[in-house]
Specification:
By secondary structure, the chain is an alpha+beta fold. Helices cover 38% and strands 26% of the residues. The protein contains five helices and twelve strands. The protein has helices at residues 2-32, 235-252, 263-285, 296-342, 357-385; strands at residues 48-63, 68-80, 94-97, 110-112, 115-120, 128-133, 137-149, 161-170, 178-182, 188-190, 199-208, 223-232. Strand 6 (128-133) and strand 7 (137-149) form a beta hairpin. The chain starts with a helix and ends with a helix. The model is unreliable at 1-21 and 347-355 (pLDDT under 50).
């Protein structure tokens, strides 16, 4: 019995070794007469249809200054190549090719039309794989990072929504030889833990964009498009821009409650608020492209600067009026004293008729400035959020 078990084990190892050799030889024989320079249906004068699907692993950055975005993704392409059919020739329905053997198989010449820069991932090995099925179906999957252009309309910034597209096109083969199409009903999937710092990914859609571009030959090349619908999150701007500027405007109104004679305090407060809003505006637009139109943030910062500057100018007005009232009162007192001396009567100083004009302006400003600013807040919010 012992010798029977030993002989059975040796025979099993020999069979497995023979199968491994046969499969390795089969892969070599399958590729040796294969011409990877020619598309699958070249001899039949027909096009090859390639189904494309995308898994978005992460969206690393979206830049308004350079108007582009960077995305890390897996792209999967599927097509049929009758030259690689092997029904029943081996004990497997498909073969997993090493990344070194992928170069021996014809693959579509897919490229990104609006790409600025892109890179393959090669740590620790090239991140790509290929499966050959017995019916000639090929599944080719690779991981890449691509930075693509995304023209943005910033009129409503930071209340804006953007649509960033990715165009996938064939570079050399016309539609007579190669056609791309999106796979199934849901060809684009995203990472469940996908997070963007300033945007929310609302949804995405896929389209056929054959004819995209200004080239006269663009209509002859297959093209598919992925659209990403993004809505900007307001949390960062509320904390860093809107709430601080509102508080600075409110601080500028403190001068209305200070005495008119407190010249250093009121002048210093007014200049401080103006400089603070100016610095805040410079910081907020430093990361923005120098576009020639007015953005929502520009309107906000300009109006806040106008309010604090108006509060600063209000004090010189009331100060000048106060000085004039004092001089007018002094002249009246001097006239009455002189008249009393001439008539040998006791001088009598009459009180000023009505309220001091300077103090009246301060009192009016305490009401008018908050009302006007509140009205601006309401109009601004309605105009840019609805």
């Amino acid at each position: 019995m012992y010798w029977v078990i030993l002989l059975y084990g040796v025979f099993s190892q020999h069979v497995l070794y023979t199968r491994a050799q046969t499969r390795a030889e089969f892969v070599g024989a399958l590729i040796v007469d294969y011409d990877n320079r020619i598309p699958p249906n070249f001899e039949k004068n027909n096009y090859t249809e390639v189904e494309v699907s995308v898994f978005i692993n992460s969206i690393d950055s979206i830049s308004e200054k350079t108007m582009d975005y960077t995305m890390n993704m897996f792209i999967q392409q599927e097509w049929y190549d009758p030259r690689l059919q092997f029904f029943g020739l081996i004990d497997s329905s498909y073969l997993e090719l090493d990344s070194k053997l992928i170069n021996d198989v014809w693959v579509p010449d897919l490229y990104f039309t609006n790409e600025k820069k892109a890179s393959f991932h090669e740590v620790t090995m090239p991140n790509r794989m290929m499966h050959l099925y017995e019916d000639g179906r090929i599944v080719y999957r690779l991981r890449i990072s691509v930075t693509a252009s995304c023209p943005m309309n910033l009129h409503r910034y930071p209340f804006d929504s953007q649509v960033c597209s990715l165009y996938l096109q064939s570079f050399a083969y016309t539609r007579n030889r190669l056609r791309f199409k999106w796979k199934g009903n849901n060809p684009v999937r995203t990472n469940a833990h996908l997070e963007l710092p300033q945007f929310d990914l609302d949804n995405h859609e896929v389209l056929d964009c054959t004819g995209y571009g200004t080239d006269d030959l663009a209509g002859n090349f297959t093209c598919i498009q992925l659209k990403l619908h993004l809505t900007r999150s307001l949390g960062f701007y509320m904390i860093q821009v809107y709430i601080p500027t509102i508080l600075i405007v409110l601080l500028s109104w403190v001068s209305f409650w200070l005495s008119i004679d407190a010249v250093p305090a009121r002048i210093s407060l007014g200049i401080l608020t103006v400089l603070t809003v100016t610095t805040q505006r410079t910081n907020s637009v430093s990361s923005m492209p120098p576009v020639s139109y007015v953005k929502a943030l520009d309107v906000w910062m300009a109006m806040c600067l106008l309010f604090v500057f108006a509060a600063l100018l209000e004090y010189p007005v009331v100060y000048v009026m106060e000085r004039r009232d004092v001089k007018l009162l002094q002249s009246k007192v001097a006239a009455e004293e002189e008249k009393a001396l001439n008539s040998e009567k006791k001088p009598c100083v009459r009180e000023r008729i009505g309220q001091n004009r300077a103090q009246r302006i301060d009192n009016i400003s305490k009401i008018v400035f908050p009302l006007v600013f509140s009205s601006f807040l309401a109009l601004y919010w309605v105009a840019y959020t609805l």
